[in-house]
Design goal:
629 residues; alpha+beta; five-stranded antiparallel beta sheet; 13 helices; 32 strands; 13% helix; globular; disordered N terminus
């Protein structure tokens, strides 16, 4: 059975790649041949942009040896002032190589990012005076000098496979790195009476590496008015998200500091979760940020009892991973400097906050490392049988060439969701292309044994050799969650299926693997009815590629709406039955009816991204505390 259908829509035809951001909010490209840009032209544009980005580096590298010595670092302030052509003692974008093709283009230089910490496009006199100290922060290996790759990382040969050539690279960058200055879109808030009358909770954050900086967290009314802002707290790294409790307290994640702090972790790490009053007063905080060892990442899930489930990366050395039965992959040397190369599995923790003392207890935990299987070496641990009924996780399924931006991981769990009625937890593994259900009713000790194995799995039978690649449903999916009972639904689960690794022919991975807007890439929303009864008993259908599940509703499953996000993103059901979505890479928010009609389609404007948008019902009890009425 071929599980998915190929897209059939025709992409918009533009005169040049420059026109992309003024043409439409629906950006999905079939081929670079649709654009009037050749590989040679694109190569020239990219080379010129790279030259401009290196302006500050060249000013600091006085002897031109492609290295900043200790002496050059010490003298950085004076060298920077040589760029100050108007003599005002500070540097603006036009003095450091601009204007740039993409907003924030100067921040592709790590030196610019560390100097312009507030990302306002101005390196002030104070920034310049402090330049030696800030440059030393980039020397993460304590070598006493900086290489050009510390400023602008060398192009990774594995990452280079993401695009077929310069033209495709240019078009991809035009889409990925642009944004609207102000709220804009074809269907603005309040323009269609079919929009839900509730609110949207929007948390803007940085992209990976802080090239674009977002930090605003606000509540937006149905008419588009931003009726409440929470003060900026810590650092809003990529994948941070918010939740509004019934008592009006805000729960959100954040990061201790700049992108430099999370470089030793896989993508999505943050490390801090807080509860705050509407004025930003922190009433509880928990930190788990242990470089090379453990860090909270991606998602969290508040529970009815007041506890919180969090996802945690757990790190091991590659040698330790081999002892688990992992087959070491040659590409691991391309990931990071040797002292930062780690192998990451997933842990789920249940936190019990004490709002009176500010303390936190870990009251339950589940470790994916306790539920691994491998079938390649009977002499190694975790040897076992894979197949349709396998309830463990294949330690060797994820191959780095297929996941260039996620090396070091083997699962990439990006969502955690809790079903209180059944006392079960659902996880989304993007790398395995599956949802996993585990039992929360058991103790932490029981969770380390067979009772902690998967109760159910769905989305990709090939991940455990239970079916063919053509049966794969999910492709780098996000925001898998149980649909709450207070909104209309016929299925159990809603899924944002990114489709970023879905090729034209529905084979498991593109060849070469790509993460691109080309080749009819499209995302979809799936509402799925799962084979589980009210008591939480699961019925596996080993002869069915869908394992007994049924897709009862979808949006854009034919790829016909020109709608795609290669990463992050989410979809949530609203009280009126509509579904609201957010494309993570450009913050495009769209609300659709059960019939698939678009009633809201806009971007909030400004830089940064968003992990997901959170709908807040008009009668949400927490609004009284937030809005004061």
């Amino acid at each position: 059975m071929a599980a998915r259908r190929a897209a059939t829509c025709t992409p918009p035809v533009l005169n040049s790649a420059v026109d992309l951001w003024s043409s439409s909010s629906d950006l999905r490209l079939a081929a670079t041949s649709e654009y009037d840009v050749t590989d040679d032209e694109a190569k020239a544009v990219l080379a010129d942009e790279a030259r401009r980005v290196a302006t500050v580096w060249r000013a600091l590298d006085l002897d031109g040896d492609d290295m900043l010595s200790a002496a050059e670092i010490d003298g950085a302030a004076g060298a920077l002032l040589a760029l100050n052509t108007n003599g005002d003692g500070q540097l603006t974008i036009d003095e450091i190589g601009g204007p740039f093709r993409w907003p924030g283009g100067e921040r592709r230089s790590a030196i610019v990012r560390i100097l312009d910490l507030d990302a306002d496009g101005v390196i002030t006199a104070d920034d310049i005076a402090d330049a030696p100290n800030r440059l030393r922060r980039l020397d993460r290996l304590s070598r006493g000098h900086l290489l050009s790759t510390d400023d602008r990382p060398a192009w990774n040969p594995i990452l280079a496979q993401a695009h077929s050539g310069p033209a495709e690279t240019l078009v991809h960058f035009d889409i990925l790195r642009g944004y609207e200055d102000e709220p804009n879109g074809p269907v603005l808030p309040g323009a269609d009476l079919r929009q839900d009358d509730g609110y949207l909770l929007i948390y803007e954050h940085c992209n990976a590496g802080d090239v674009q900086v977002g930090k605003d967290l606000f509540l937006q009314a149905a008419d588009g008015e931003r009726v409440h802002h929470w003060p900026h707290l810590n650092h809003a790294s990529e994948t941070v998200s918010p939740h509004l409790r019934d008592d009006g307290l805000l729960v959100r994640t954040s990061c201790p500091d700049l992108w430099l702090e999370v470089l030793c972790f896989p993508v999505g790490a943050h490390g801090i979760i807080t509860m705050e009053e509407p004025d930003g007063t922190v009433v509880w905080e928990y930190r788990l940020f242990e470089p090379g060892q453990r860090v909270m990442h991606h998602d969290f899930e508040p529970m009815p009892n007041g506890n919180i489930l969090v996802t945690v990366y757990s790190g091991k050395t590659f040698d330790e991973a081999v002892e688990f039965g992992w087959q070491r992959q040659a590409q691991d040397v391309l990931m990071r400097p040797p002292d930062l190369q780690r192998w990451w599995t997933e842990t789920i923790l249940e936190l019990e906050p004490n709002l009176e003392t500010g303390e936190t207890r870990v009251v339950w935990e589940w470790h994916s490392a306790d539920h691994l299987v491998q079938d390649v070496d009977p002499e190694l641990p975790n040897f076992g049988e894979l197949g349709p009924g396998c309830r463990k996780i294949d330690i060797n399924y994820s191959q780095y060439p297929n996941y260039r931006f996620n090396m070091g991981q083997i699962m990439h769990v990006n969502t955690v969701s809790y079903d209180a009625a059944r006392d079960q937890i659902m996880l989304s593994s993007a790398m395995h292309g599956e949802l996993w259900v585990i039992d929360h009713s058991i103790s932490s000790e029981e969770a380390r044994g067979p009772k902690g194995d998967l109760l159910y799995r769905w989305g990709n039978t090939s991940s455990h050799k239970g079916g063919s690649d053509s049966d794969k449903i999910l492709d780098w999916q996000h925001d898998i969650h149980w649909i709450p009972d207070n909104v209309p639904h016929t299925g159990d689960v809603l899924i944002f299926n990114n489709g970023s690794r879905r090729p034209d022919d529905d084979s498991p991975n593109p060849s070469p693997p790509r993460l691109s807007f080309m080749n009819d890439a499209y995302s979809e929303i799936l509402e799925v009815k799962l084979p589980v009864d009210a008591d939480g008993n699961w019925e596996w259908d080993l002869d069915d590629p869908l394992n007994g599940a049924k897709i009862v509703w979808d949006y854009n499953a034919d790829g016909g709406k020109g709608w795609f996000s290669p990463f992050m993103s989410g979809a949530r059901r609203r009280p009126n039955g509509n579904t609201v979505t957010a494309l993570g890479y450009n913050k495009q928010i769209r609300e659709v009816t059960p019939e698939g009609e678009t009633v809201l389609d806009f971007k909030p404007g400004g830089p940064g991204r968003t992990f997901r948008v959170v709908p807040i019902a008009a009668d949400h009890p927490g609004l009284k505390r937030v809005l004061g009425s």
